[in-house]
Amino acid sequence: MSITISMAPLHGVTNRVFRNAFVRHFRGFDYAMAPFILSIPAPRSRNAHFKDLFPEYNTRLPLVPQILSNDAVAFAQTASALAELGYAEVNWNLGCPYPMVTGKRRGSGLLPYPESIERFLAEACALSPLPVSIKLRLGLVDAREIMAIMPVLEAFPLKRIIIHPRIASQLYDGSIDLDAFAGAASLSGREVGYNGDIRDVSTWRSLAARFPKVNEWMIGRGAISDPFLPGRIKGASLPDDPKVALEAFHEDLYFGYRETLAGQKHALDKMKEIWSYLGSSFSSDGYGQKEIRKAFSFEAYEKAVRAVFSEERWVAGTNVETTAG
Prior knowledge:
Order of helices and strands: EHEEEEHEHHEHEHEHEHHHHHH
Largest sheet: 10 strands, parallel
Number of domains: 2
């Protein structure tokens, strides 16, 4: 069975600069899901609200926009603007776990209310010019919440359903609940995609063996930590010297942020966030990585990065057999 591997939407991380730099240097992703935008009433398609989604900035990797909303009419109007930009699908975010979102009954905050989800979808699917897909969690505070939601979703012509097997109150901590994922997936008559804690090929292989009917695997933090991971899942080999590709990717990303972000601090903060993931795939959290975290100038940052690439080894995936089978 052929598989689809998609880039997960990490707010503030997997923006157009990251997506474009990634696909220039690494393989494996079939499409990316963009970090969410809020629904807004009657927007114009060239509104700055959509800047990260402008087609001219997203030519290298197919992209699915994602909307965070609890207003079906505004959702559909936002989807109409996205249709004018040439998009063919829109995703409804039912997965964002952060309290400032859930407290407004957005994202995972809607999961305890299947009747509200049903009303929203009835109106949104009727009004949206684009097919609607959904990314959701197991629940807000209880993994059993999804069991009341899945039958509701069956009534609508959804493009895809992707489940992250945590509840919102976990954020990204604690264990994933694979039994709850299996139970939810069993209630769907369509294929269900999986997202969550795919950090290496062996983990993916174990999940694929347990869930043989899943053919879409969404990867976020695992691919930022190890950009070779999506390609290796599909059978690509790790290069003899992974750091050559990583240095080229880093330079592309770094200067991309320097060109698009205002101010030294903003660009450095973005790169430090990337290193909070990427650094875990090097042999040690040594001098270079500590200096990256302390850097407040481009000069200090660049010196610290040189130390990482010259002194530390790339260890992610170095002892893993790679094949999708």
